[in-house]
Amino acid sequence: MDTFKIKKNDKNPxxxxxxxxxxxxxxxxxxxxxxxxxxxxxxxxxxSGAAVITGSDTGNVEYRWDGxxxxxxxxxxxxxxxxxxxxxxxxxxxxxxxxxxxxxxxDYN
Length: 109
Description:
By secondary structure, the chain is mainly β. It has strands at residues 3-7, 15-18, 32-39, 45-50, 52-55, 60-63, 75-85, 91-94, 100-105. It contains no helices and nine strands.
């Protein structure tokens, strides 16, 4: 599993990914919304915010950091995306087989 790395209070780069089913096909995000959820090392929720769908048919999303509430603390965090469809009232958490590892490093100025 790759680790997404960012400095404390930074807003870039965005966390970009393609949401896929276990068989590798893209999740259809039409009529849906996506939330990014971030947790501490003990899986206690730390922050959540809306993700931007950059490709409804291709499952492409990105989370754009706000630089304070989400990257405001140094440490190792875990992340996931939650898709909610408007028409079906259902949800799915991705990736379904692991969590994304996020490392926030100290910024010295």
